[in-house]
Amino acid sequence: MKTKTILRGRSSFVRILLAILLVCSNFYSKALAEEGTGPNPEHPGRTEWIKEEGALHATIAQERGYGPLKTIEHSMKFEAPSFRKVFHTDLVSKAKTEYEEVVMKDLLKLDGTPGAPILPVKPIRLLIPYKHKVVGVEVTTTSLEYIEGEYLIEPTQEPLPTSEADEAKFTLPDPKIYESTNAYPSLPCEDVAIVKKSGYTILLLNLSPIEYHPLKCEIAYYPHIKVEVEVTPEDEAIDENTYYMRVNLKEQDTISSLVDNPEVLNTYIEGVDSEPQSLSTGLGLALPGPYEYVIITGSAFEAGFQPLINQKISRGLTATIVTTEYINANYAGTETGDLADKIRQFIRDAYNNWATQWVLLGGDIEVVPFRGVYASCGSYTDNALPTDMYFACLDGPWNYDKDSLWGESNDGLKRKDIDLVPDVFVGRAPVSNPTELSNFVAKTINYETFPHTNSKKAVWLAEQLDNKPTWGSSSKIPIKQNCIPYDWNVVERYDEVAVWDGATFISDLNLNPHIINHLGHANETYNARISTWDFPLIQNQNEYPYIMYSQGCYSGAFDYDDSIAEKHVTDVHGGVATVMNSRYGWYAPGSSPSWSHWYDLEFWDALFNEHKLHFAEANDDSKIDNLFRVSSNGCYRWIHFELNLLGDPETPFQLTFSTPPEAPTSLTAIAFSATQINLSWQDISTNETGFKIERSQRSSGGFTQIATVGANVTTCSNTNLRRGTTYYYRVRAYNDGGDSGYSIASATTPRR
After folding, report:
1. N or C: at which end does the chain have fewer Cβ atoms within 10 angstroms?
2. Lowest-confidence pick of 137-151, 378-392, 532-546
C-alpha cells in the first residue's frame, strides 16, 4: 500500500522516471556492502564492519600492544532532517525533474558516486592519547525514526572539468540504488582513517545518520549514535631518522579546534613534558637552530632571498636560508634518493630539530623540484600531478611499493594511505631569474610592510560553465554570503547577470583590489579572461599587490613554463600570492555547487570566520576541513593534491577584526503565558553586531540558537512553547571579532 501511495503521489512522474533509469543510466552504484579491511591486505584503505550484539565492530589493529585497553567514547544527537526542493532540466526535452536535497543541522553535504543519492554526513575527529594506537571501533545507534512524506533524493552529478564547455548531461539516478529494496547507505558509518598532524594521532570517521529507502521514497534517521574507540599503548618501534615526527605543542590550539575531544590534549602535554625536547643539529643540520622560517633555494638565489629573511627577522621570527646544494650533499633521502626526496627528509629534520613551521620553496622547478603524484577522476587520470603537499605532509613514505606512481592510496607506511595532513606550512616562489626573484621579494615585503590602500575591497568573478546552463555564480554567491564581512566592498562580475570580459577585469586590477576569487574556464596561460601576454596592461601598484584564488583548470600548473599563476606572483604589477589548480578544476552541472567549490569555500572560511590569517594556513585549513571527502581515489583526492600556494606561506593577510564584545549581563526570563517566555538583558558592550539567543531544556548542554537580534536590542520573546516546561536560555553578543561570554537564565511555563 505504501508503494502504491508513493507512486500515486508522484503520479506518472515516478513511472516515467523509473523507465528512463532502466534505459539511460549507465553509472555504477556505490557498493552497498563492500567488504573492506582494517587488517585485510587486499583492501588496505577499507574498513570491514561486523554486526555483533546490536552494534557494529571494526578491528583496526590485530596487535594489542603491551598495555591495558582504554576506551574513548563520543556520542552525538541528531535532529530530524529538513528538505529543500531542487530542479534539474533535461537539455533535450526541457522537462524539469523535482528532487529533494536533505539538510540536517551541523551535518555536511557529501557527494557520492555519480548517480548515487547525495546525503549529509557527520565527520568526527577523535584525538588518540599520546603514544597510543587504535585497536578497534564500535558504533551503536538508537532505533530509526521515519520521516513522514515521500522523497526523491537528488543524485550526485558526474564531476566535469571547468575547462570543458561541452554540453553538460544530467546524471540520472542509478537504478542499481534507486530501484533497490536495500537501504542506502547500508551502514551508518564509513571507513576509519588514522592520520597524524604535527605528532598528534587523530581518528577520522564519517557517520551517516540518514537511511534512504529509494524504491519506497522513504527517509529515516538515527536520533543518536555513539562511537567507542579502543586504544592501547603503542609498542611498535619507529625509525626516528625516517618517520619520527616530534609533537609540536605550539599546535595545541589548532588541534583543540580540530578534534571533537580536545580534553585528550592533556596526555600530549604531560607526555611531552616528561621527555627530553631539546633541539639539536639532527641528521645534517649545520646549526642547532631554532629556525621557525626556512627558505630552500639554489645558491645562485641565496643573496636575492636575504632581504626576505631580514624582513622575517624584523617581524620577530627566527629565519634562515638552506641551499639545495647543501641538502643534496648532506641528506640521502628515504625512498629514491632524488633531490625532492632529500628536500623532504631535510624538512622533516628541520621540523624535528629546528621547530620549523614555515617553508618557502625558493625557485621554479629547475631550482626546487616538485613531486608528481597519481590522481584519477572518472575517465581522467594523471600520473604526475604537481603537488607541493609532498613537502608539507611528512609522515611516512609516498611510494611504499616503489613503482613509478607516487601518492597512491597504498603508498603510505605498511601499504596504508599516504599522509594527507600538512605538518608544516609550505609555499613556493616560482622564480627562474633575478628579475622574477626581485619582484617576488619586493611585493612580499611591501605587502607585509605597507597597509593596503583597499584592504576591504574584493573582486568576485564567475563565468557560464556550460549550456545547461551552469553558472559559476552558484558557487561565488554562497561563498560571499558565508564568508565576506558585511562592510567589504565586493565587485561582483557574474555572467549570469551581465557577461564581463578581460578588459573589465584588468580595469578592476588597476584599481588595486585586495582579494580576487574566480570560477570559470582556464588553462595554463589563460584565467579570468586574461592571458599571460596581457600583463603589460596591468598597472596595479607595487605597494598594494592582491591575493587571487581560482577554481579554473591548469592555471596553477607550475611545471609549465610559465603558468598564469606564476605570472601573477612574478610580474612587477601582479599579486603577492595565488592559489590555483595545477591540473583540472572540477564542478557539478546544475544549480548546486560541488567538488572544487568546497575547497574554495573553506579557504575563505578559514580566513574570515576562523581567523587563520597566514597564506598557507588558510590553504591547509581548506584541505583539513575537506579531508572527510577524500577517498582512496576520485575527484576530491585530485583537488586535495593540486591546490598549491604560490606565495610566501608565512605572510599574514592584511585583515583586522574587531575586539569581541563584552558579554551581556542580568538576563531575565519571565513566563508571559503558558506558551511564551519573554527575555531581557543589559547591554554593556559598545561594538556588538547583535545578540544570539540560545535555548535548551537542560541546564547544561543541548543548547540551540533560536534567534538573533540587532545591536542595542535588549529583549526577545520566545513563543510556541510547551505548557508546564522549564526552559534554559543563554544570550551572548557577537561581531566580526567573535562571540562574547554568556548571560544565563531560566523560566517555567505554567500548565494553564
Report:
1. N
2. 532-546
Q: Is residue 398 in some structural domain?
A: yes
- Estimate the share of the chain in helix, then strand, then coil, as percent rounded to the nearest 5: 25, 30, 45
Phi, psi of 347 (to 5 degrees): -65, -40
228: left (phi over 0), alpha (psi -120 to 50) or beta: beta
Backbone phi and psi for residue 479, each to the nearest 5 degrees, phi listed first: -65, -45
Per-residue confidence band for 599, with pLDDT thresholds at 50, 70 and 90: very high
| Domain tally, the chain | 4
> For residue 617, is it within any domain?
yes
Within a domain: 261: yes
Q: Is the previous residue joined to 185 through a cis bond, with omega within 30 degrees of 0?
A: yes
Amino acid in the structure at residue 133: K
What digits encode the pLDDT tens for the residues 298-337?
999 999 999 999 999 999 999 999 999 999 999 999 999 9
pLDDT digits (tens, 9 = 90+) for 500-539: 999 999 999 999 999 999 999 999 999 999 999 999 999 9
Cα gap 268→265, rounded to integer Å:
5
666-688 exposure pattern, b = at least 16 Cβ within 10 A, e = fewer = ebebebeeeeebbbbbebebeeb
Which secondary structure element, helix H or strand E, spans residue 673, and what is its range? strand 665-673
For residues 514 and 456, is the Cβ–Cβ distance under 8 A?
A: yes
Clarify whether residues 606 and 684 are in a common domain.
Answer: no
Q: Are residues 361 and 455 in the same domain?
A: no
User: How many C-beta neighbours within 10 Å does residue 80 have?
Assistant: 11
> Which residues of 431-545 form beta strands (DSSP E)?
457-462, 464-466, 470-471, 489-494, 515-519, 526-527, 530-531
What domain range is 729 assigned to? 665-748
